[in-house]
Amino acid sequence: MKPRVFSGIRPSGRLHIGNYFGAIENWLKLQDEADCIFAVVDYHGMTTPYDPKEMMKEKYEVVLDYLAAGIDPKKSTLIIQSQVPEHTELAWILGTITPVSWLERVPTYKEKVALHPEYINLGLLSYPVLMAADILIYKSDIVPVGEDQLPHIELAREIAGRFNKMFGKTFPLPKEALTKGARIMSLDDPTKKMSKTGGGGILLSDTPEEIWKKLAPAVTDPARKTINDPGNPEICNIYSLHKIMSLPEQIKMVADSCRHAKFGCLECKKILAKNIADEFEDFRKKRKELEKDPERVQKILRVGAEKARQLASETLAEVKKKTGLG
Ligand code: TYM
Q1: What is the 6 CA–ligand 1 centroid distance (Å)?
Q2: Distance (Å, rounded) from C-alpha 127 to C-alpha 124?
Q3: What is the DSSP letter of 186?
Q4: Which residues are catalytically annotated?
Q5: Cα(107)–Cα(120) distance, rounded to whole angstroms?
Q6: CA-to-CA distance for 130 and 89, rounded, in angstroms?
Q7: What are the DSSP calls for 82-94, one per residue?
Q8: Rounded to an integer, what distance in angstroms lies between the CA atom of residue 289 and that of residue 296?
Q9: pTM for the full predicted model
Q10: Model confidence over 169-222: pLDDT tens digits?
Q11: Distance CA 78, CA 180 (A)
Q12: CA within 20 to 30 Å of 285's CA: 33, 115, 233, 259, which one?
């Protein structure tokens, strides 16, 4: 039996290189060796302020990005979370065994409360319970995500463990899979992670010109004031990106040139901009093709939902039986 993999992304805009190098890179690897389900998690997208008119478009954009990035519907199951209602049904049941104190200590909850003090809702507090349900409804073994999701995966493990203890062994304890780019920082403010809502991100679909427009003003080593000052690549966000996206000899060359003031930050960024543009050249072409074929995309999602519902309903039936719901 192949291991089961689940992961998802909220529909809050087109995917950026943080999503790609933090999560999708591993999805692409895993789809060849595991039984993968990848979702656009629209119910999660409702826990922070959003525009209902934009929701449909945003979901579609993310699915196009998945497919253009190489998620292959012949190998992986692609779903929109709300089309598999078993997720929310299991979330309710898991919510009844999750202490509120576990949820109140989750860092992303505290961050979101600080960010949207006018939008503190029950869905936001129980967000990790729904996420646990997303993972556990498929009895997933592996969850490929970026570093920011680790507290959620830990909580999913705790919830699964508690359920198993109370009602008998049902769920495997899911493990995260991290990439080497598990935390990509914002170009505008490298103390914050790159995000769809916070800005400072390069989208997978950005053209070479757009990539350059974003990279040129990006923050570098703050102590390097002029081109003649030697820089410190280890504290430069651009160098961190080189380490993920450039060839080994380029990484060595840019570090050396920076340390010995052989070139300025703009030259260093030009190499990176070209590497990013080249890396996603095929992506851009494939995405343009997919944009012309919405019916194909709809069909992929219909087939995905059918397959996922079959798996999910089996788990839900087992859970209902064990919890006395019949
Ligand atoms: P979301 O939509 O914020 O992000 C999607 C994925 O991209 C990763 N990521 C990053 N990785 C590295 N550097 C960054 N700057 C960066 N920004 C985002 C995230 O870690 C994530 O893997 N709660 C999840 C969605 C979710 C989910 C699930 C994930 C709902 N249910 C079940 C896995 C399994 C979220 O908000 O991801």
Answers
A1: 12
A2: 5
A3: P
A4: 112, 193, 196
A5: 14
A6: 9
A7: GG-THHHHHHHHH
A8: 11
A9: 0.96
A10: 999 999 999 998 789 999 999 999 998 766 679 999 999 999 999 999 999 998
A11: 25
A12: 33
